[in-house]
Amino acid sequence: MRLSTFRCEPLSNSQGTNNRTLQESAPVFTDDFARVFKTLLTWRRDVRRFKTDPIAHGELLNILEQADLAPSVGNSQPWRIVRVRGSDARRTVAETFENENAKAASAYGEKRASLYYTLKLAGLREAPEHLAVFCDPNTHQGDGLGRQTMPETMAYSVVGMVQTLWLAARIKGIGVGWVSILDPAAIHKALNIPDTWQFIGYLCLGYPEEEHIEPELQRAGWQGRTPMSDRLFER
Predict the structure, then answer these.
(1) Rounded CA separation 52/2 (Å)
(2) Which residue from 80, 73, 89, 50 is spatially nearest to 169, judged by alpha carbons?
(3) Which residues, at least 6 apart from 222, have a Cβ–Cβ distance to it below 8 Å?
(4) pLDDT tens column, 37-83
(5) How much is the pLDDT for 10?
(6) How many angstroms separate the Cα of 28 from the Cα of each of 10, 31, 115, 225, 230?
(7) Half-sphere exposure of 96 (CA within 13 A, CB side)
(8) Which of 69, 150, 178, 224 lies 20 to 30 Å (CA to CA) from residue 158?
(9) Fold classified for 44-225
(10) Helix axes 57-67, 153-171, angle to 10 degrees
């Protein structure tokens, strides 16, 4: 599904020429934009079923450049993205997933494990693009600002970048699947990654084979979505 176009209108200059640059650079997001944005959020799916059609190199770079606009603690931009293209590396990642997937299934009872095995939890064989995402907690960029008491905000920043990438890809009709059933040590070894980098996630990118508004886990009967009221608290 491709999203419809929208208009983003500049603010009018009502406060004189001194504020001209500020006023003209600050857009107003219209109701039409808000509706399209909600559609984007609704149709952003964790894709597992990909076509093998390649993604144009320029299209991928555009998505990555948009992802790089994500906020980060201290403006540190701690994400490190590895484009995994080698067949040996991809095969090792797939084997690691299969091993860890079998271990995960064994943790469930017989009935739940049976359903677990029906789930398609990765698109490693079909997806044309693989991105391994890491956090460099020792980057000097940002000079440590904002992370002295909560160093985990570095990893949180990388996750925020992944979400931005996900939305940027969806706008282009490209699906993203986050593969989490992996052994970080095996990924580090397969990709020859510095030991100090923290593994955050492994992303498969490609054009979806199917389009569904409901999450796949919901359609499979594993877990549906629950209302926001279940997660909202006051103190």
Answers:
(1) 19
(2) 50
(3) 115, 116, 119
(4) 999 999 898 999 999 999 999 999 999 999 999 999 999 999 999 99
(5) 45
(6) 6, 10, 47, 32, 32
(7) 21
(8) 224
(9) NADH Oxidase (3.40.109)
(10) 140
How many other C-beta atoms lie within 10 A of the C-beta of residue 157?
24
Is residue 45 classed as helix, strand or coil in its secondary structure? coil
Cα distance between residue 9 and residue 32, in whole Å: 11
Evaluate if residue 220 carries a pLDDT over 90: no
Cα–Cα dist 189/180, whole Å: 17
Structure tokens at 72: 């980060």
Q: Is residue 13 scored above 60 in pLDDT? A: no
pTM: 0.86
Residues 6+ apart with CB under 8 A from 165: 63, 64, 66, 67, 70, 176, 203
Both tokens of 197, joined, read 């980098």
Dig out the tokens for 46 from the structure. Answer: 């964790």
Helix (H, G, I), strand (E, B) or coil at 174: coil
